[in-house]
Amino acid sequence: MTAIGAQAQRLLAHRRPQKSFFETLIRSLIILCVAIAVVLSSISVCDGRWLFARGQLFGLWHFCTLSNGSVLKCVTDLSLAKVEGLSVGVIPIRSMVSFAVVVAIFGLELLMVSQVCEDANARRKWSMGSVLILCSFLLSATGVLSFSILVKDHLTFTGFTLTYWCEFIAAFLFFLNGISGLHINSLTHPRNRVGKI
User: Fold this and answer.
1) What is the C-alpha separation between 28 and 36, in angstroms, rounded?
2) Number of alpha helices (DSSP H) and beta strands (DSSP E) in the chain
């Protein structure tokens, strides 16, 4: 046997098993849904206007009032909203939801890299990306819940703006895809095979 033939046999012997079509499809869908969640969360954080109630628009960055029925006047001083704790409480909320987007971007990057570069660490990269997506869920959900608690006296179900629902849906997608990512990794790489890989 020639040296090239021996090397080819060694490479074939140590080659990782090919992924099934459905595993690739599911992983691609998880990546796509995480990307959609990152876009939704980014839009929500950048706009930041989350609640409209009684002619007032409460947000992460601005407080707006409607004057003369149609002109929107916005200020960055949230103490003018006369909601107890809003001007101070919104600072950690901004930080949480902004950091959730950053963490989700890193998680998404790890998910994509694990699929493009299928090396020995691909499984770890996928797990780490899924954990980061779950961390994004925790940060995002905490921010959404904290904002709702801060403005509880002004809450109405129809008062939540589209950007608030974008953040809510993004948090939900972060949760679903983080859990799904960890679950598919455990299904396709059972613990008893880890030593053999």
Assistant:
1) 12
2) 5, 4
In angstroms, the CA 100 to CA 178 distance is 13
Please classify residue 41 by burial: count the beta carbons closer than 10 Å to its beta carbon, then call 0-12 exposed, 13-18 middle and 19+ buried: buried
Quickly list DSSP for 110-151: HHHHHHHS-STTHHHHHHHHHHHHHHHHHHHHHHHHHHHHHT
pLDDT (0 to 100) of residue 69 = 65
Q: Is residue 169 a contact partner of residue 177, using CB atoms and an 8 Å limit?
A: no
- The closest alpha carbon to 62, from 41, 46, 43, 42, belongs to 46
pLDDT value of position 37 = 95
For residues 100 and 143, the answer to whether their CB atoms sit within 8 Å is: yes
Place of tokens 């090396």: 119
**CA–CA separation, 51 vs 71, rounded Å?**
17
Residue 81 neighbours by CB under 8 Å, 6+ apart = 56, 58, 63, 87
Q: Would the pLDDT of 90 be above 80? A: yes
Distance, in Å, from the CA atom of 111 to the CA atom of 123, rounded to the nearest integer, reads 9
Q: What percent of the chain has pLDDT over 90?
A: 40
Q: What is the mean pLDDT of residues 121-125?
A: 86
Tokens of 197: 């890989």
